User: Fold this.
Amino acid sequence: MIITQRKPMEDLFAMLEGVQKVALVGCGNCAAACQTGGENEVREMKALLESKGIEVVGTLVPEECCHKMLVKKELKALRDSGAQAILGMACGDGVQTVADNAEVPVYPANDTLFLGQIERVGIFHEYCRMCGDCVLGETGGICPVTRCAKGLVNGPCGGQKNGKCEVDPENDCAWILIYKRLEKLGQLHKLTGPVPDRDHDRMAHPRHINLRGKKV
Assistant:
């Protein structure tokens, strides 16, 4: 799940300076789960903007704001709304998807933070950097690229204290977690061999995948 948090209100109003009519586009998936862009949050944002003298001329909450064709279809409802701008209450990808299909400026209401694991409602943890070169098979299913503050893939830095990271003592040392997991699995031998160089070509941006061959 893509984790987002609401931008500071002073930043939001700075973006909307001079805008008198705005439309709101949320997201029924990730942003709704993060309580930054679901139906409730869109209603709350509408009330807040109107209390500041900004007219909200339309609202949408697509099921998935990153789905290009879905967003394109739903945005038709705002075509004649008179909106001078759209406030996107989704992740950065969702805001860009809206912008690709809008003829007015689109501004982000949220900051996009990370790809998160859901522990329970309202509690998220960053577990994956989406780097394109996954090493989980060699590290017991624990990602050192993400869960080590230094992103080390060749073992620990030696700065841990009592099992905690020297960069952020609130976090467990990823490599101690990896060692314990591999020990439990009977796979400690995976820590004794050479570690191949990472394929940074897989991390070149922007990346694209087309499962339909030449069709688009």
